[in-house]
Structure prediction request, 374 residues.
Amino acid sequence: MTMTASPVKIAASDAADQPTRTPELDALYRGFESELLVPLWTEIGDLMPAHPRSKALPHLWRWQDLLPLAAQAGELVPVGRGGERRAIALANPGLGGRPFATPTLWAAIQYLNPGEDAPVHRHTQNAFRFVVEGEGVWTVVNGDAVAMRRGDFLPQAGWAWHGHHNATDAPMAWIDGLDIPFQYALDATFFEFGPDAVDNLETPDRSRSERLWGHPGLRPLTHLGPTPATPLLVYRWEHTDKALADQLALEKEGVAATVEPGHAAVRYTNPTDGRDVMPTLRTEFHRLAPGTETTAVSEVGSTVAQVFDGTGEVVVGDRTWTVERGDLFVVPSWQPLTLRSEHGLDLFRFSDTPVFENLHLHRRQETDRQETGR
Ligand code: 1HN
Prediction:
């Protein structure tokens, strides 16, 4: 077999315990290269840092920049079989131009014109939609048509059939979150085309999933055995909003109801077991009362967040941004996050935390920003 140029390049280490460079040592390293071998002593610093050093960077995308570009794609680019979705992904500037928001998470803005269908397909990737503004699209998951409206969170388990249909005369944009980069790294991905047209064009106010699963604390006796993964297909804004308002009201009444003073939060959970709605994705909604600053927290794993309402300041590692409705930002692994708001802030966030928890790799640390800011 002829050898092509070796992809392995060994840099002579300048670590203190290394031998001085000699012709013999160079020949040894060339030998390693041509046999596709890499000695640990030249790599250990990168492979085993003292704490996670993500290649992903903290980054902010402004909704006022994203939305006009998505609308322009709506004018110029059809949606249909092959491309499947008019979805435009956030590409983290540290990840080499791949459409990856973080090493594990995909995030995109998707846009559907009046009367348009996004064709039916299924994939092993877990997905969700979150609606920051507008309404008029029904996402049809395994034949169940689910209305999408502002503030709604719509999870969709891997391998569920799904297509979208805009039944109104206005375009609609929303965000998608998926575990694409994670499954890509694991070589675990399967995909299948379904019908070209969305098979159920009904536009019910409430989906079948809500009618069966959407009653707090009430589990249908028809489903005491194995239940579908992610049975509830939408978490409506009215419930999320009320839960957060009640937490802040209870805190005022002296009941311990918030994460920390002025900071209310809920996690979207599976109604049958109280766990995260999807095995790879954690999804939460956070509300800061006016005049709140959160404790800086570093966590293993990465987060993408979208401002739902209000304004505030977001600090991620050494970056600080002033944010408003629709803005999306990335928190790479182990970079401390602080939120501040003078007038109140509502924030949707998703992360890969369940992966790390299940693999016993999750760590969380409240941080003194002075000491660890990079
Ligand atoms: C997908 O199916 C959707 O169903 C959104 O809306 C984004 C990105 C890559 C592959 C499939 C959707 C996607 C996607």
